[in-house]
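I'll show an entry:

:::
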Amino acid sequence: MHGVRIRENFGIDVLEGAKPNAGWLGPEMSGEDGATFKEKLHWAIGEAKARFRVDDKKPLGAYYDFELLQVDEKNNMQILLYGSLSRDENDILPGHIWVEREFLEVQNMKYYCPTVLQACLKEQRDLVEHYHRLDDGTLKPQEEILLLREKREDMKAKLDMVIEQQTSLKWVNRVIMWCADKMPSFGDSFLGEKSSISDTTARAADVVEKAIANNMMTDARNNRRRALLKKVHCTAPLPPKAVEDGGSRARGQ
């Protein structure tokens, strides 16, 4: 998945020289089985070009290859994204609408990450209430005032941390920043390196390997996402049926 765009830079197509799978007509017609990932992606690109009226000889767009975008908190929905920049509202596709980033991000969190969102909002409210309870409004000596100030600063830092931890789920913002950065590939910095490898396929594979090994920001973000999901699901109350079963079903989810 990560190497699709890098291989394109070496003149290697999605199928890497293989012929299309003419017997697989898409998931709606043929189901999920019967085709490799490369064959499914090749079909999806062709289908998107046909629907969006993109010339088959032209690229669908710039492929976002930094990460596989996880849309929901259950990891049930992923997006492989090809992007192109719109100049204004008149440049969007028929049947589509223009929405603000904040609106799309909030809707994504609300409908696809509801458990995490509610847990984070509750944690924020608890911290804000604790912050307000620190000062009872009475006169205090200088030492207590300084201590109160330290506690408030500590509470603010915790609140910032709770807000920041949601960033790993906000893929919409990352994609928009990628567009603002002119849609680079995560392997761009390695494409210009000199190499003693003469075979094109092997040279492309070498660049892919280097790019993946240095994609540390994505790795760190994925780790933060996993930690947040684990934290939320571990602290969330058990559903009624799981409680009756002694919690065994919740542990298996």
